[in-house]
């Protein structure tokens, strides 16, 4: 069994999965344990839809097909990033973009290739399972933070099962297509999807770095 440090440090956004099926019991075990994630006043604001098999194949077909047909994004339901992000966030974001696209051999100005790379999101990078995390429209910032704690718990527990994941806000860009498959109640808004599966170790990647501890943590200890 992986320990917590190993689960945290071995989790990464995997973007190449094997087709190997993920057993339903495994997903149930992970999601049952993840429900112990904390939330303010224990309101447990996560609403999760797990999609596998034929429904997922249909969703991938519809979502990737939209791009091919030129029907791009749905109306945005929330702001993913502020339009003018200041330093250091803007720099970190562009460093990530450069790293990711150079790993794929895509030039900065090659928008078509970037688009193709983005489309891989809607194929779940080949993963055979996905979950979609919704939140009630009436809830606020603090409850969105609860979702993050829940989703990280899911991703760490997946590591304990030998599985990997990729959290994907990209799904929120095609939320109407996701809704066609999962039929969420109207009061729910899609935050993100998450691809889940066994890693295809043949797919190259660059491990994303992190800012040094001093850049993000201040100890005040006299
Ligand atoms: C809320 C959230 C949404 C994300 N959305 C996407 C996405 O749509 N597509 C994608 O390929 N990666 C997505 N990522 C993965 C991040 O790019 C990744 O976590 C970050 O670059 C750090 O890399 P690492 O997770 O591999 O350590 C998302 C991550 C989070 C937490």
TrEMBL record:
GO molecular function, one term: oxidoreductase activity
UniProt domain Nitroreductase: residue ranges: 9-198
UniProt xrefs under Pfam families: Nitroreductase
Entry annotated with the keyword Amino-acid biosynthesis: no
Matches recorded under InterPro entries: Nitroreductase, Nitroreductase-like, Nitroreductase/BluB
CDD domains: PnbA_NfnB-like (cd02136)
Record key words, sorted: Flavoprotein, FMN, Oxidoreductase
Domain of life of the organism encoding this protein: Bacteria
Protein name: Nitroreductase family protein
Organism, as annotated: Mycobacterium dioxanotrophicus
């Amino acid at each position: 069994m992986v320990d917590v440090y190993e689960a945290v440090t071995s989790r990464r956004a995997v973007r190449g999965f094997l087709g190997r099926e993920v057993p339903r019991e495994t997903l149930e075990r992970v999601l049952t344990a993840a429900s112990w994630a904390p939330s303010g006043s224990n309101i447990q604001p996560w609403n999760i839809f797990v999609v596998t098999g034929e429904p997922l194949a249909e969703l991938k077909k519809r979502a990737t097909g939209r791009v091919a047909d030129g029907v791009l994004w749905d109306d945005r339901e929330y702001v993913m990033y502020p339009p003018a992000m200041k330093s250091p966030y803007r720099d970190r974001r562009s460093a990530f973009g450069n790293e990711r696209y150079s790993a794929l051999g895509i030039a900065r100005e090659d928008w078509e290739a970037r688009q193709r790379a983005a489309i891989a999101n809607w194929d779940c990078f080949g993963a055979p399972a996905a979950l979609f995390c919704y939140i009630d429209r009436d809830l606020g910032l603090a409850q969105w933070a609860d979702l993050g704690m829940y989703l990280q718990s899911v991703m760490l527990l997946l590591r304990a099962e030998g599985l990997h994941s990729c959290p994907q806000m990209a799904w929120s860009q095609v939320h109407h297509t996701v809704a066609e498959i999962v039929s969420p109640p109207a009061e729910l808004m899609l935050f993100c999807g998450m691809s889940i599966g066994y890693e295809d170790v043949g797919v190259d990647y660059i491990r994303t770095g992190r800012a040094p501890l001093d850049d993000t943590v201040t100890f005040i200890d006299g």
